[in-house]
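Good day; I would like, with your permission, to put a structural problem before you. A protein sequence and the structure tokens that stand for its backbone fold form the material at issue. Thank you for your consideration; the sequence and its tokens are set out here:
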Amino acid sequence: MTGLRPAGDDPDDLVTVGRYIDPVAAEFARSRLESDGLLCFVQGGGIGSLLPTATVFPILLQVRAADAERAAELLSEEGEPPGVTPPDVAGGENVA
């Protein structure tokens, strides 16, 4: 099978470094990572985050797999803002 690879082999794959129920907290974390030069994305922070079911569908903060460890360090330096659930950095959750 050419062209196929196991998930997580590419340093450009996205991994989740934080899960939030509060869109403001997710944007705060995104801003912190971007201010340190990391490319990151907030997924799920649109209108759905205003619905009562937002806790069922958390807002994900994602970075490149190559940056996941640094992102976790930066976020832990800041402490966890309200609305944060534990990140998946240990093994890196691949969402690509």
User: Anything to note?
Assistant: The chain has one domain: 14-82.
